Amino acid sequence: MRPALLALFLAAAPGTFAQLQNWDPTPYRTDSAVTFHDDLDYYLNSYSKAEIKAMRKQVDIWRMNFDKLMRATITDLRTYSEGGNMDPHTHDFTLKDARDGRPYRLEGRPGRIRAFMFGSISNPPARAQLPFWDRLRAKYDTAQVDLFVVYGKELHPGDRKRFRAYPLPKSEHEKLAYAQEFAQLTTLPVLVDGLDDAVLQAYGRVPNGAYVVDADGRLVFRGTWADSRKIEHIVDTLLRWYAEGRPKAPPAVMKDDE
Fold first, then answer.
1. Which residue among 9, 28, 104, 186 sits deepest, i.e. has the most Cβ atoms within 10 Å of its Cβ?
2. Which superfamily is assigned to 3-243 in CATH?
3. Please, which residues have CB within 8 angstroms of residue 166's CB and are 6 or more apart in sequence?
4. pLDDT per residue over 64-76, tens digit each?
5. How many CB atoms lie within 10 A of CB 73?
6. Which sequence spans correspond to the domains of the chain?
Protein backbone atom coordinates (compact mmCIF):
# COMPACT_ATOMS: atom_id res chain seq x y z
CA MET A 1 0.00 0.00 0.00
CA ARG A 2 1.27 3.45 -0.83
CA PRO A 3 2.13 5.62 2.19
CA ALA A 4 -0.48 8.14 1.08
CA LEU A 5 -3.18 5.58 1.81
CA LEU A 6 -2.36 5.75 5.49
CA ALA A 7 -4.68 8.68 6.07
CA LEU A 8 -7.18 8.31 3.25
CA PHE A 9 -9.79 6.71 5.43
CA LEU A 10 -9.57 9.37 8.13
CA ALA A 11 -8.53 12.42 6.12
CA ALA A 12 -10.65 15.10 4.54
CA ALA A 13 -10.53 18.21 2.45
CA PRO A 14 -10.78 21.53 4.37
CA GLY A 15 -14.13 22.87 5.45
CA THR A 16 -16.87 21.63 7.71
CA PHE A 17 -19.47 21.62 4.94
CA ALA A 18 -17.29 20.46 2.07
CA GLN A 19 -19.17 17.24 1.46
CA LEU A 20 -22.55 18.94 1.35
CA GLN A 21 -21.20 21.38 -1.20
CA ASN A 22 -19.88 18.54 -3.34
CA TRP A 23 -23.13 16.60 -3.20
CA ASP A 24 -25.98 17.71 -5.48
CA PRO A 25 -29.15 17.75 -3.31
CA THR A 26 -31.48 18.20 -6.31
CA PRO A 27 -33.79 15.18 -6.53
CA TYR A 28 -34.61 13.24 -9.65
CA ARG A 29 -38.32 13.58 -10.35
CA THR A 30 -40.52 11.17 -12.29
CA ASP A 31 -44.27 10.74 -12.30
CA SER A 32 -44.03 7.99 -9.70
CA ALA A 33 -40.94 8.63 -7.57
CA VAL A 34 -38.46 11.07 -6.10
CA THR A 35 -34.89 9.76 -5.93
CA PHE A 36 -31.58 11.37 -5.08
CA HIS A 37 -28.00 11.49 -6.23
CA ASP A 38 -25.88 8.93 -4.44
CA ASP A 39 -22.99 10.27 -2.38
CA LEU A 40 -20.25 7.71 -2.92
CA ASP A 41 -17.41 9.88 -1.66
CA TYR A 42 -14.46 7.98 -0.24
CA TYR A 43 -13.21 10.90 1.86
CA LEU A 44 -14.60 12.05 5.19
CA ASN A 45 -15.41 15.49 3.83
CA SER A 46 -18.48 16.02 5.97
CA TYR A 47 -16.36 16.66 9.06
CA SER A 48 -14.27 19.61 10.15
CA LYS A 49 -10.52 19.38 10.63
CA ALA A 50 -11.02 19.34 14.40
CA GLU A 51 -13.50 16.47 14.17
CA ILE A 52 -11.18 14.51 11.90
CA LYS A 53 -8.31 15.05 14.33
CA ALA A 54 -10.43 13.82 17.24
CA MET A 55 -11.39 10.66 15.34
CA ARG A 56 -7.83 9.96 14.25
CA LYS A 57 -6.70 10.06 17.87
CA GLN A 58 -8.99 7.10 18.57
CA VAL A 59 -7.21 4.77 16.13
CA ASP A 60 -3.69 3.69 15.19
CA ILE A 61 -2.99 5.11 11.73
CA TRP A 62 0.28 3.17 11.54
CA ARG A 63 -1.56 -0.08 12.15
CA MET A 64 -4.05 0.75 9.38
CA ASN A 65 -1.19 0.59 6.88
CA PHE A 66 -0.19 -2.96 7.80
CA ASP A 67 -3.25 -4.66 9.28
CA LYS A 68 -4.72 -7.07 6.72
CA LEU A 69 -8.29 -6.56 7.95
CA MET A 70 -7.96 -2.77 7.82
CA ARG A 71 -6.53 -2.86 4.31
CA ALA A 72 -9.43 -5.03 3.19
CA THR A 73 -11.87 -2.53 4.68
CA ILE A 74 -10.16 0.35 2.87
CA THR A 75 -10.35 -1.63 -0.39
CA ASP A 76 -14.08 -2.17 0.16
CA LEU A 77 -14.59 1.54 0.78
CA ARG A 78 -12.65 2.56 -2.30
CA THR A 79 -14.53 0.05 -4.48
CA TYR A 80 -17.87 1.21 -3.15
CA SER A 81 -17.03 4.87 -3.58
CA GLU A 82 -16.51 4.18 -7.27
CA GLY A 83 -20.08 2.91 -7.52
CA GLY A 84 -19.50 -0.83 -7.34
CA ASN A 85 -19.84 -3.50 -4.68
CA MET A 86 -23.64 -3.29 -4.36
CA ASP A 87 -26.80 -3.98 -6.32
CA PRO A 88 -28.44 -0.53 -5.93
CA HIS A 89 -31.87 -1.72 -4.85
CA THR A 90 -33.66 -2.33 -1.56
CA HIS A 91 -32.47 -5.52 0.11
CA ASP A 92 -34.98 -6.83 2.62
CA PHE A 93 -33.83 -8.05 6.02
CA THR A 94 -35.18 -9.04 9.40
CA LEU A 95 -32.95 -8.22 12.38
CA LYS A 96 -33.49 -8.15 16.12
CA ASP A 97 -33.31 -5.02 18.24
CA ALA A 98 -30.33 -5.04 20.61
CA ARG A 99 -32.40 -3.70 23.49
CA ASP A 100 -35.47 -5.92 23.53
CA GLY A 101 -34.88 -8.62 20.93
CA ARG A 102 -37.91 -7.67 18.88
CA PRO A 103 -37.57 -8.44 15.17
CA TYR A 104 -37.67 -5.62 12.64
CA ARG A 105 -38.33 -6.39 8.99
CA LEU A 106 -37.45 -3.66 6.51
CA GLU A 107 -40.22 -4.54 4.05
CA GLY A 108 -42.62 -5.03 6.95
CA ARG A 109 -42.90 -1.24 7.38
CA PRO A 110 -44.68 -0.05 4.22
CA GLY A 111 -45.97 3.50 4.31
CA ARG A 112 -42.95 4.72 6.29
CA ILE A 113 -39.77 6.31 5.06
CA ARG A 114 -36.87 4.23 6.36
CA ALA A 115 -33.39 5.70 6.86
CA PHE A 116 -30.58 3.75 8.42
CA MET A 117 -26.84 3.69 8.82
CA PHE A 118 -24.33 1.01 9.69
CA GLY A 119 -22.21 1.45 12.78
CA SER A 120 -20.26 -0.28 15.52
CA ILE A 121 -18.67 0.55 18.82
CA SER A 122 -15.19 0.83 17.26
CA ASN A 123 -16.41 3.02 14.39
CA PRO A 124 -15.54 6.68 15.17
CA PRO A 125 -17.55 8.24 12.27
CA ALA A 126 -20.67 6.30 13.26
CA ARG A 127 -20.30 7.31 16.90
CA ALA A 128 -19.86 10.94 15.84
CA GLN A 129 -23.14 10.82 13.92
CA LEU A 130 -25.28 9.42 16.73
CA PRO A 131 -26.21 12.77 18.39
CA PHE A 132 -27.26 14.21 15.02
CA TRP A 133 -29.37 11.20 14.13
CA ASP A 134 -30.91 11.29 17.61
CA ARG A 135 -32.09 14.83 16.87
CA LEU A 136 -33.62 13.67 13.60
CA ARG A 137 -35.47 10.90 15.39
CA ALA A 138 -36.90 13.47 17.80
CA LYS A 139 -37.93 15.67 14.87
CA TYR A 140 -39.95 13.16 12.86
CA ASP A 141 -43.25 11.41 13.51
CA THR A 142 -42.42 7.75 14.08
CA ALA A 143 -45.61 6.85 12.22
CA GLN A 144 -44.02 8.34 9.11
CA VAL A 145 -40.28 7.82 9.48
CA ASP A 146 -38.14 4.98 10.83
CA LEU A 147 -34.55 5.91 11.73
CA PHE A 148 -32.22 3.23 13.04
CA VAL A 149 -28.71 1.79 13.12
CA VAL A 150 -27.71 -1.62 11.82
CA TYR A 151 -24.88 -2.87 14.01
CA GLY A 152 -22.40 -4.19 11.46
CA LYS A 153 -18.73 -5.07 11.69
CA GLU A 154 -16.10 -3.53 13.92
CA LEU A 155 -14.19 -0.90 11.98
CA HIS A 156 -11.15 -0.79 14.30
CA PRO A 157 -11.40 -4.00 16.35
CA GLY A 158 -9.02 -4.13 19.30
CA ASP A 159 -7.32 -0.90 18.25
CA ARG A 160 -5.50 1.30 20.76
CA LYS A 161 -6.70 1.81 24.32
CA ARG A 162 -10.13 3.06 23.25
CA PHE A 163 -11.15 -0.13 21.44
CA ARG A 164 -8.81 -2.72 22.95
CA ALA A 165 -11.72 -4.37 24.73
CA TYR A 166 -13.55 -4.88 21.42
CA PRO A 167 -11.76 -7.40 19.20
CA LEU A 168 -13.71 -9.02 16.39
CA PRO A 169 -16.63 -10.84 18.06
CA LYS A 170 -16.38 -14.62 17.91
CA SER A 171 -20.04 -15.37 18.59
CA GLU A 172 -23.53 -13.93 18.11
CA HIS A 173 -23.70 -13.45 21.87
CA GLU A 174 -20.51 -11.40 21.91
CA LYS A 175 -21.67 -9.25 18.99
CA LEU A 176 -25.00 -8.67 20.74
CA ALA A 177 -23.14 -7.52 23.86
CA TYR A 178 -21.21 -4.98 21.77
CA ALA A 179 -24.44 -3.78 20.17
CA GLN A 180 -26.14 -3.40 23.54
CA GLU A 181 -23.27 -1.24 24.77
CA PHE A 182 -23.43 0.80 21.56
CA ALA A 183 -27.19 1.25 22.08
CA GLN A 184 -26.47 3.08 25.32
CA LEU A 185 -24.96 5.90 23.23
CA THR A 186 -28.15 6.64 21.30
CA THR A 187 -31.94 6.79 21.33
CA LEU A 188 -32.06 5.09 17.92
CA PRO A 189 -33.10 1.47 17.61
CA VAL A 190 -29.98 -0.65 17.09
CA LEU A 191 -30.56 -3.76 14.98
CA VAL A 192 -27.93 -6.48 15.14
CA ASP A 193 -26.57 -7.94 11.91
CA GLY A 194 -25.47 -11.56 12.03
CA LEU A 195 -21.95 -12.70 12.68
CA ASP A 196 -21.68 -13.24 8.91
CA ASP A 197 -22.55 -9.55 8.32
CA ALA A 198 -25.08 -10.59 5.67
CA VAL A 199 -26.98 -7.28 5.65
CA LEU A 200 -23.75 -5.28 5.55
CA GLN A 201 -22.62 -7.43 2.62
CA ALA A 202 -25.89 -6.81 0.75
CA TYR A 203 -25.53 -3.04 1.15
CA GLY A 204 -21.93 -2.82 -0.04
CA ARG A 205 -19.71 -3.66 2.97
CA VAL A 206 -19.40 0.01 3.97
CA PRO A 207 -18.99 0.32 7.78
CA ASN A 208 -20.76 3.70 8.06
CA GLY A 209 -22.90 3.57 4.93
CA ALA A 210 -26.30 5.32 4.99
CA TYR A 211 -29.43 4.47 3.01
CA VAL A 212 -32.94 5.84 2.55
CA VAL A 213 -35.90 3.73 1.46
CA ASP A 214 -39.06 5.64 0.57
CA ALA A 215 -42.57 4.80 1.80
CA ASP A 216 -43.10 2.65 -1.29
CA GLY A 217 -40.03 0.51 -0.68
CA ARG A 218 -37.70 2.07 -3.22
CA LEU A 219 -34.05 2.65 -2.34
CA VAL A 220 -33.73 6.36 -3.14
CA PHE A 221 -30.33 7.22 -1.65
CA ARG A 222 -27.07 5.54 -0.66
CA GLY A 223 -24.03 7.19 0.84
CA THR A 224 -20.58 6.05 1.90
CA TRP A 225 -20.80 8.14 5.10
CA ALA A 226 -23.88 8.76 7.23
CA ASP A 227 -24.08 12.56 7.07
CA SER A 228 -27.24 13.46 8.99
CA ARG A 229 -27.71 16.68 7.01
CA LYS A 230 -28.17 14.76 3.79
CA ILE A 231 -30.59 12.37 5.47
CA GLU A 232 -32.61 15.30 6.83
CA HIS A 233 -32.82 16.97 3.43
CA ILE A 234 -33.90 13.72 1.75
CA VAL A 235 -36.51 12.83 4.37
CA ASP A 236 -37.93 16.38 4.39
CA THR A 237 -38.18 16.33 0.58
CA LEU A 238 -39.94 12.97 0.57
CA LEU A 239 -42.37 13.96 3.32
CA ARG A 240 -43.26 17.13 1.43
CA TRP A 241 -43.78 15.16 -1.80
CA TYR A 242 -46.09 12.68 -0.10
CA ALA A 243 -47.98 15.48 1.72
CA GLU A 244 -48.57 17.22 -1.61
CA GLY A 245 -50.19 14.10 -3.02
CA ARG A 246 -47.19 12.79 -4.96
CA PRO A 247 -47.27 15.47 -7.65
CA LYS A 248 -46.02 14.41 -11.04
CA ALA A 249 -42.78 15.74 -12.38
CA PRO A 250 -43.13 19.03 -14.29
CA PRO A 251 -42.93 18.63 -18.06
CA ALA A 252 -39.50 19.05 -19.58
CA VAL A 253 -38.82 22.46 -21.05
CA MET A 254 -37.91 22.23 -24.73
CA LYS A 255 -35.12 24.47 -25.95
CA ASP A 256 -35.63 26.55 -29.12
CA ASP A 257 -33.17 24.44 -31.08
CA GLU A 258 -34.73 21.11 -30.16
1. 9
2. Glutaredoxin (3.40.30.10)
3. 121, 122, 154, 157, 158, 178
4. 555 666 677 777 7
5. 20
6. 3-243
